[in-house]
Design goal:
homodimer; alpha+beta; four-stranded antiparallel sheet; elongated
Chain lengths: 357, 357
């Protein structure tokens, strides 16, 4: 099978989050065909490692789940494969499986991590499950997370802050609204303010991070003839690696300014920290050089932040256009797969011996 | 029991719209204690009538439902009763029940109407249910609708237009919102526009009507990391008696202007027409005289419009401050109940013989 066909085989297995048993089984059995690998199955996660030969350990990780959708529509047409998960991230997984199961001469040990439940709440992540049950399996000197990056190194990742807002008002009859205060009209001012947000861009280690602020849900209303006394809203703020939880929240509170009053509530609903770009790491700089293109910052949150918390410098690098992720017309091309395989193969072959930096 | 206690008894019965069976049962059994009344139960509506003595028929009507809320908080403190529905309109109902069940010498027949589901969509109104199933029960020469008016005649009523809005956007990842369009941010502009509305006032038959525009519900949101592609909103426009359905809708569409685009939807969800003031009616002028205060226009929609459609000149006149309606601290006072009882009693006693106008 060529790489498009190998990817198609993975795409046609429905592996929406929490339903990864079948694909994990296929990955496990495929990895077990290589006697040089120690293969461990932990829940629906599979970790395969070479051991005992080298002092340095490289880690390559990818998630095996997808967002919901119909996988039966997938097909190869010419040099393209269209189908749910083609880009995020079964193209990269196919290349990882190919490299893990073929003989290769390397200067480092390699750990291959295939994990479940990345596309849903971080608390359910299969990578966290492995980190809790077998943290030894995630030890490495450096890691690549093979999320789609268009074949470019996307360094670090931005944090993501979810904030819930409750705006207070005062009920009244809608024929006499001057006797009350409409919380939805106050919400209008808040949304107007959020829509006026101008992204802040920060440059760290030579790559740019552009923050974002979006309203992701609203609600409110009592009855058709009642001025509502409560409006709620959830905001999602993408936070560059130079700011932590409290700093980001304080900035947001300041930005919303007079839209938030004493009787209102503004609370952190969820926070996932950013990861710094780690481009001072010699092996990640080598990866950037192999791609032939400058690194850029990762705008979304990814598990490079999880590796950072585990003390493993990591970066995003994978096959496929990140703008295609989660779209019904998601696609991957033969060239994207081949280029990813070339860079990954050369990096795995050339990286070795403890780094000096 | 005094009138505050009689009102409290009704207030403590939870009778949110569509849940009027218990209070209708109490009203029915109370009315049946007066052998002079023909009592009819139609669904959760109760109609009681004297018959056979006089040529003229007066009708007094009130709704038995309330907006949602906690009725267990109701209490009497000194000369006040605070509690959901105290003012809208269980104070008036208590006086109606008192007058319907006590012996009285009158020159007219009297019809007492207690009806369900006034506080929700007009299509569900219990008064329409009676009008459809037993229109004969609503025949009268003149009607008082005992909605709270502060003891003043509130003539006619404004129409009420409910419009549902759906604003379109385009989904994207919240880390790359520039690839989509946030429908909630568009909603912000719409709500901002609605909040900027300046009321129009019209004078008819010497009374003023002031229109209003309020957002009454909003919703929208896909997931915590997705730029939403749809936002919805419901607007409530109160319309003076000089405008009909299409005129009011056209005005609203024009007012919203560029907030509504081609891919959006703007639809009439509900319309209840206005009623003209009917102050040319002799018996309604007599009622105004008994109150000792000039009439004013009714800003909210009421079932005087339903009576107008049935050919019965009607007006709003009831106990309690209309500005308190639908508020969590709704209240009625002993003086308000006593004054309503005085005027209603005198009007029922003095009105009689066919009017000449």
């Amino acid at each position: 099978m060529n790489r498009l066909e190998q990817t198609l085989e993975l795409v046609t297995i429905d592996s929406v989050s929490r339903n990864e048993a079948v694909i994990a089984g296929l990955v496990e059995s495929r990895l077990r065909t290589n006697p040089a690998l120690d293969v461990e199955r932990i829940g629906d996660n599979v970790v395969a490692r070479t051991t005992g030969l080298h002092a340095t350990r490289l880690l390559v990780a990818g998630h095996i789940d997808t967002v919901p959708g119909d996988v039966t529509l997938a097909e190869i047409a010419g040099d393209e494969l269209r189908g749910l998960g083609a880009c995020d991230m079964k193209g990269s997984l196919a290349v990882m499986l190919e490299m893990a199961t073929q003989p290769a001469v390397r200067k480092s040990e390699v750990t291959w991590v295939f994990y479940a439940r990345e596309e849903i709440s971080h608390a359910e992540s299969g990578l966290l499950e492995v980190a809790q049950l077998r943290p030894d399996l995630l030890e490495a000197d450096v890691a690549i997370l093979a999320e789609p990056t268009g074949g470019v190194v996307e360094a670090g990742c931005q944090g993501t802050l979810r904030v819930s807002v409750e705006l207070a008002g005062k009920r009244a009859h809608t024929a006499r609204p001057f006797a009350g205060r409409n919380a939805l009209h106050r919400l209008g001012s808040l949304l107007h303010r959020v829509a006026s947000y101008e992204p802040r861009t920060v440059t760290i280690d030579g790559v740019d991070y552009t923050e974002q602020l979006q309203a992701v849900s609203v609600g409110g209303g009592v009855a058709a003839n009642v001025v509502p006394d409560l409006a709620n809203c959830t905001l999602n703020h993408r936070v560059a690696p130079d700011r932590g939880r409290e700093e980001a929240f304080a900035w947001l509170r300041g930005f919303l300014g007079e839209c938030i009053e004493d009787d209102d509530e503004l609370e952190i609903a969820d926070w996932s920290p950013a990861a710094a770009p780690s481009l001072s790491n010699e092996r990640l700089r080598a990866l950037v050089a192999l791609t032939g293109q400058p690194a850029r910052g990762k705008m979304g949150w990814t598990d490079v932040a999880t590796f950072a918390e585990l003390g493993v410098p990591a970066t995003n690098f994978g096959a496929g256009d990140p703008l295609m992720a989660h779209r019904s017309d998601e696609l991957i091309t033969r060239d994207q797969l081949d280029e990813f395989a070339r860079v990954l193969g050369e990096w795995l072959a050339s990286s070795g011996e403890p780094a000096t930096n």
